[in-house]
Amino acid sequence: MRLRVLNLLLCTGLLGMAAEPAPPAIATLHSRMEEARKAGDPVKLLAVAEALNERVEPIHLEALFNLAAANAKLGNRPEAYAWLQRAVDAGFWDVDAIREGEAFKDLRGEPRFKALARLAWTKGYLAMLERKERAAFQKPDQIMASLAFKPGERVADVGAGSGYFTIPIAKAVGPTGTVLAVDINPDMLDYVDKRAQAEKLANIKLLRSRPEDPMLPPGGADTILLVDVLHYVKDRTPFAAKLKAGLAPGGRIVVIDYIPKPMSERPWGPSVDQQFSRATMDREMAAAGLKPVRVFEYLTEQWFAVYGAE
Ligand SMILES: C[S@@+](CC[C@H](N)C(=O)[O-])C[C@H]1O[C@@H](n2cnc3c(N)ncnc32)[C@H](O)[C@@H]1O
């Protein structure tokens, strides 16, 4: 498990060869936190508590997971499930460790175990989509400004995921506009729904689609947005034709996807097999009767093109 490898590297000092000073020990951080609390200094308390949490959290998660694993191994099913639930709720999202862990071999086939593994995957995926660092390369504010959504606009966000774009678009199009959040994964739609309710956005509708069909109402969308979605679609030309059928007259299809790069250059994001260039997209869109009408060049990891009917 990655956590264990990291601990090993830390313990053996293999990661400590750089000039970085060793972080303060947990006990030191704990006493500093107590001092800050007693001194009634909330700024210091926040900083020290954050530092302490950063040190303790991975160890805590690993302990919760191992409590589940040990109980599973001992045949203590209720305890194993209770600890695994706690681990996942607290942020243990290493799905491979859960699904493949030898300790869980007798539980693996049970619906409750499968549901917990799925929950861990979903939480990890949502956290990946919503990670703070994403904004640095994704530039959501600049994308929103480039697309200049208008009040009353009808938008379909196909492959909406966590609602990273659905929510700001719903605010931009206002109560007279709509955003149809489309996804093949119902867990993503549940999450978007919760966010819409929390933000009191009544203009977000949800649609569970199929991998080969976005299932859009015919001619109903002024804008169809697909951010980091089409690399999942196996046969994009028929998919593009279905997108076109969902466009209102004069509507646009906006596609943002990863610039092909080898894993040595970008060890994250879609695999090399999944990546495709804008030139490929242009050809596939042309086969569906769509042409690029605008291209934005400011994203460093992705290409960004707007298509309209020919
Ligand atoms: C990488 S996420 C991107 C989410 C969102 N667009 C964003 O920029 O944060 C891809 C999403 O597309 C969904 N997806 C994958 N294939 C799809 C398909 N064929 N049709 C609709 N959604 C799909 C996945 O379930 C996932 O939620």
Helices, strands, pairings?
Blueprint lengths: L1 H11 L13 H14 L2 H32 L3 H14 L4 H6 L10 H20 L3 H5 L1 H8 L6 E5 L7 H8 L4 E6 L2 H13 L5 E5 L12 E7 L8 H10 L1 E12 L19 H10 L2 E7 L5 E8 L1
Parallel strand pairs: 1-2, 1-4, 2-3, 4-5
Antiparallel strand pairs: 5-7, 6-7
Bound molecules: S-adenosylmethionine (SAM).
What is this structure, in a nutshell?
The chain is an alpha/beta fold and 310 residues long.
Comma- or semicolon-separated keywords:
single chain, 310 residues, alpha/beta, Serine Threonine Protein Phosphatase 5, Tetratricopeptide repeat, Rossmann fold, 2 domains, seven-stranded mixed β-sheet, globular, disordered N terminus, binds S-adenosylmethionine
Tell me what you see in this structure:
The chain is of the alpha/beta class and 310 residues long. It folds into 2 domains: 2-130, Alpha Horseshoe (Serine Threonine Protein Phosphatase 5, Tetratricopeptide repeat), CATH 1.25.40; 134-309, Rossmann fold (3-Layer(aba) Sandwich). Helices cover 49% and strands 16% of the residues. The protein has helices at 2-12, 26-39, 42-73, 77-90, 95-100, 111-130, 134-138, 140-147, 166-173, 186-198, 236-245, 278-287, and strands at 154-158, 178-183, 204-208, 221-227, 247-258, 290-296, 302-309. It has a 7-stranded mixed β-sheet, sandwiched between helices. The longest helix has 32 residues, at 42-73. The N and C termini lie far apart (52 Å). Mean pLDDT is 93; it is low at 1-17. The chain binds S-adenosylmethionine. S-adenosylmethionine is lined by residues 129, 158-162, 164-165, 182-185, 188, 209, 211, 214, 227-229, 232-233. Residues 129, 158-162, 164-165, 182-185, 188, 209, 211, 214, 227-229, 232-233 line the site of S-adenosylmethionine (SAM).
